[in-house]
Amino acid sequence: MTQDQQGRHQGPGRRTLLAGAALGAGATVLGLPGVANATESGAAPVRKLPVPAVIGHRGASGYRPEHTFGSYQLALDLGADVIEQDLVPTKDGHLVCRHEPEIGGTTNVADHPEFAGRKTTKTIDGIATTGWFTEDFTLAELKTLRAVERLPSVRQRNTIYDGRWEIPTFEEVLKWADEQGRKRGKAVWLHSETKHPTYFRSLGLGLEEPLTKLLRKYGRHTKGAPQFLESFESSSLQRLGRLGVAAPKIFLLDVATSRPYDFVAAGDPRTVADLVTPAGLKWIASFAQGIGPTLLLIIPRDADGKLTTPTTLVPDAHSAGLVLHPYTMRNENQFLPAEYRTGTDPNAYGDPFGAFQVYFATGIDGIFSDNADTALLARQDFVNGA
Fold it and tell me: Which helix (H) or strand (E) holds 140?
């Protein structure tokens, strides 16, 4: 039996059991499509997530400027199982949704002469970056700005929405999720990332304390909450745990040679390659319920950009009781494995459906995608054996 056939033969049912085991008492978090809802006391019915779950990466960022309500709403309307937010702080301590603290590429701040003097260069996680940064603005000032497409040369069609939406706060997203949940009769799942937590803590703008306060306010801090918390820094997830946040935590992992920045700051010599060993995964399972690896850790690519043999990360993580939410699938050629590209235009769509089938066959429990509708159709093909 080939690996692709084996993945299809096992089907989502086996992975559902693995996912449920990973979340322990919160096993209602993941389940097969169509399984009956679980209900928490005093809460709306919580829909069990299909496996593999489709996570709207920054919303529907393939179609709308990322981290806007236009992007979040479209992802939800397209059918994404979970909606992702990246969280960074303002000068006055509010959490807002931006991919990075630098906002020159995602807002129209450069068009505001009153903020010209705030353009500066900062070193974040060892990398010098020039632009405007959320921590230098109050929330009221950020609310005068409007979001723009981050990749205008790749997603030219998205630029027609430039200026339409403001920067949302995380509390506004929580209110929106509650409202949408009531309208739909099922909870709206969120996947929320603490960005550069070591850097922000050094500025006196720790992310975990205000995040915990908001999660408690909206009932998303418990083990059974429709809420994933993610970070590239294990210390951030551990801090959330010490603060009493029991919602499922996902440790994000970059390429094998990289080191999480909190490791760099603490002098911890381990790399991601050390963390994806059985011993490393056992350590991760002591504070998290899952990992969010780059897809390159699931199936590496050769020098030509083609997929090679899958690693043992999926079965190893499952053996450690962890779910896997790898990132990120996009439809454009330049982001796809070489054998799934079509034509020579890097910005044209390739064959993401084919790539999805290979990734799904490895047994992953979810996947981040900029194009939720594509991912959902691909999952339907996979489940139906198409």
Answer: helix 139-142
Angle subtended by helix axes 234-242 and 208-217, to nearest 10: 50
Please identify which residue in the block is written with the tokens 């909450």: 225
The neighbouring-strand residues paired with 249 are 229
Model pLDDT, residue 31: 36
How do beta strands 53-56 and 82-89 pair? parallel
Report residue 30 as tokens: 């993941």
DSSP-assigned letters across all residues of 103-114: -TTTBSGGG-GG
Using DSSP's 3-state secondary structure scheme, residue 320 falls into coil
Between CA 13 and CA 86 the distance in angstroms is 31
Where residue 38 falls among pLDDT bands split at 50, 70, 90?
Answer: very low
Q: Would you state the structure tokens that stand for residue 145, as one six-digit string? A: 């700005």
Q: What are phi and psi of 228, to 5 degrees?
A: -105, 145
Structure tokens given for 277: 């060993």
- Are 141 and 109 in contact by the 8 Å Cβ rule? The answer is no
For residue 386, what pLDDT is reported?
A: 72
Contact 26, 223 (CB under 8 A): yes
What is the Cα–Cα distance from 21 to 3, expressed in whole angstroms?
A: 23
* φ, ψ (nearest 5 deg) of residue 259: -125, 130
**pTM of the prediction?**
0.89
Identify the helix (H) or strand (E) that includes residue 82.
strand 82-89
CA dist., res. 323 & res. 290, Å (int): 4
- Report the mean per-residue pLDDT for the chain: 90
The full DSSP string for 248-263 is -EEEEE--TT---HHH
Burial track 127-158 (b if 16+ CB lie within 10 A, e otherwise): eeeebbbbbbbebebbeebbbbbbbeeebeeb
Whether 243 has a pLDDT exceeding 90, the answer reads: yes
What's 1's DSSP letter?
Answer: -
| Alpha carbons 352 and 115: distance in angstroms, whole number | 41
